[in-house]
Amino acid sequence: MSEYSGGKRDMKKVRIGMIGYKFMGKAHSHAYRDVPFYFDLDTEPVLQTMVGRDEQAVKLASEKLGWQSYETDWRRLLERDDIDVIDIGTPNHMHAEIAIAAAKAGKHILCEKPLALNVQEAKEILDAVQKAGVIHMVSYNYRFAPAIQYAKHLISTGALGSIYHFRAQYLQDWIMDPGFPLVWRLRKEIGGSGALGDLMAHSIDLARFLVGEISEVSGMMETFIKQRPIGEMTGGLSATVDSDSKGDVTVDDATAALARFENGALGVFEATRFGRGNRNGNRMEINGSKGSIRWDMENMNQLELYLEDDPRGMQGFRTIDCTEVEHPFAKAYWPAGHGIGYEHTFINLIHELMRSISTGTVPSPNFEDGYRNQVILETIERSNIERRWLNVSY
Ligand code: SOE
């Protein structure tokens, strides 16, 4: 059978309104464009309209990224009946207002992570989508690396036995220069939190996906550089300084947390933007009674696996190249050994969204996952303030 057996079919058009056009706007646009290229779907995303407040900038972005039109006010998308999905790729403080309005307008929603600024907002968003009955998905993209999906398969088929430890580090270093400006990601009223919600939220999502629910946490947070010159993000993780005057950094530069899982496993989490030399060091290790796995985003196609049942003398961590047909999502791309990258985690995520819209089933991760993640983030934050262990309650 030909690789192209899906051929050109009558696919239901799913018309997207994308709010935001910088880092995540680019990642999502690329994924919508490429998903039909690799997967046989019943639905086809249409890059209908991109939204941004700066008209000149959004016009240029929408043209370059392949959108049919642009708007400068997201509210206009909600009045239109030629938009099926609202994709929220804005700074975090706008997620709640847009998501709740989109749900009321009956639109399906994809929202960037973390779902909201705090638990209260996250709950309001969850209630709104449940009431409206729309499809909702939160963009925890690293779940969609084939190696992570294969790790899930290994754990759920019992290959690792009972899980005792989940250990994660998410290390970046892009704000270490004290001259790096006070961008939105460093302001609590816009970002919600710093390394905690931006980075540890991803590790928490992997932990919940792979090991299960967290019941108790103890957190420790620090802001190393307390004031910075005023400035703004320009795209990716770059920024410009706009003024000599300084403002207060109101989020954490680094957070560490200990956790207990409901199934008895122990979790150790570390997230920092001060991990010198680590550009996107998103790593985790899981130890079970029969084996262990290790994963590092900067080598994302590889999974290290140790199995205690291997013959004595031959035991040790082996490296699995998760590019074979047995590895979830991998066969949609290239022959074995031809790896994929960061952007493909978003293509796989958009595939899940399209599959869900086509079948009417609940995608994963959805806003319930986004809400639970937010509860854990906020409990870690409170634990740091109160200097004690706290139960996680939903
Ligand atoms: C910046 O720290 C960032 O882009 C995060 O916001 C993303 O969620 C992460 O995937 C990469 O780093």
TrEMBL record:
One function term, GO molecular function aspect: nucleotide binding
Keywords: Oxidoreductase
Residues annotated as domain Gfo/Idh/MocA-like oxidoreductase N-terminal: 14-140
Domain GFO/IDH/MocA-like oxidoreductase, first and last residues per copy: 148-294
Pfam families the record matches: GFO_IDH_MocA, GFO_IDH_MocA_C3
Protein name, entry field: Oxidoreductase
Organism: Paenibacillus radicis (ex Gao et al. 2016)
